[in-house]
Amino acid sequence: MSAGAAPGPDGLRQGGWAGAGQRRGRGGAGPGGERAMVPPAEFTSYYGRPVVKPSPWEIDIPAYMFAGGLAAGSSLLAAGADLTGRPALRRSARLGALGALGFSFAALVHDLGRPARFLNMLRTAKLTSPMSVGTWILMAYGPFAGTAAAAEATALLPARWRRGPVRLLAALGRPAGLVAAVTAPPVAAYTAVLLADTATPSWHEAYRELPFVFTASAAAAAGGLGMVSAPVAQAGPARRLALGGALVEQLAERQMERSMGITAEPLHQGKAGRLMRAARVLTLGGAAGSLLAGRSRVAAVASGVALLAGSLCTRLGVFEAGQQSARDPRYTVVPQRERVDRGEPVRAEA
Fold first, then answer.
1. CB atoms within 10 A of CB 188
2. pLDDT tens-digit map of 113-124
3. How many CA atoms are closer than 13 Å to the CA of 199, on its beta-carbon side?
4. Burial level of 128, CB count in 10 A (0-12/13-18/19+)?
């Protein structure tokens, strides 16, 4: 006699299973030619609720992550252009960094609901909180990126106005830009740490490689923006940054999927799968186009737009995959059981 579904020790109901006395039929692929009559377990939580609650974040957060990474990559590119005597590329990268940073702040404040909530986060500094650390990283980076961009704006003023405070601001452009470049890599990487620090399965299991994926994606996007906004003759560093970032992103993403185990499945399913496939096509297409962008302005713009779109799709795809993994209890329970089987702790000790 077969037993009905019964709750397991992990709080999930497993699908129907054959009783101990039920015989297994012949002709299957099992040992001795026997075919198992036990169906795969079904993972359904009590009352149809997920084991891990999906994040309340909406599209504002992946947009914030994309724009912050773009700003950080642009500051690095601007510093390189400044040191190698490429004023047009420096100007476009600095102004691009300021625009992306402004959009990133706007998206974050929109998600928080009111600006006062962001300011309240500055009242304390908690090293164990990625959100707190990230807030202070932005505050360390933002003023210098803004000063460097403002210094570029002084070149647009009439010559008779470039004296006194305006002249001082113009002189601060290089040191401010270099400090912004130094503080830029943590801006690009910390959002990956923020995701991985949650209990969302596909985000948490990607903690090893996700910072490399996001940082490389930011470099590709910044290179793409430089290819779009700077003259072809000065955009050589942007093309090289775009190509290198795109290749590293693809390699890191492949390694990430291998290390994630079962939690990598949502990256290939549904909306997240479509976004990740689009990100791959756009990023690789933009990287290939960057090889021709040194001879064609049209190729430079098309490749740059593809790289920007690919970087955005990467953030959206990773975000959506995490939300999908939280809704399916299988992605919470299976990794926990695997950790128990390996003798690893399921949760951190207090």
1. 26
2. 777 777 777 777
3. 15
4. exposed
Picking from 266, 146, 151, the residue whose alpha carbon sits closest to that of residue 201 is 266
The residue ranking higher by pLDDT, 281 or 105, is 281
Determine the angle formed by the axes of helices 210-229 and 236-260, rounding to 10 degrees. 160
CA atoms within 13 A on the CB side of 335: 24
Cα angle 182, 186, 189; round to 5: 140
Residue 325's pLDDT is 93
Inter-residue long-range contacts of 125-130, CB under 8 Å, 24+ positions, other chains counted = 130/190, 130/193, 130/194, 130/197
Chain centre to alpha carbon of residue 344: 27
Query: The tokens 């695997």 sit on which residue?
Result: 338
What is the rounded CA–CA span in Å between residue 69 and residue 186? Answer: 9
What was the pLDDT predicted at 45?
A: 57
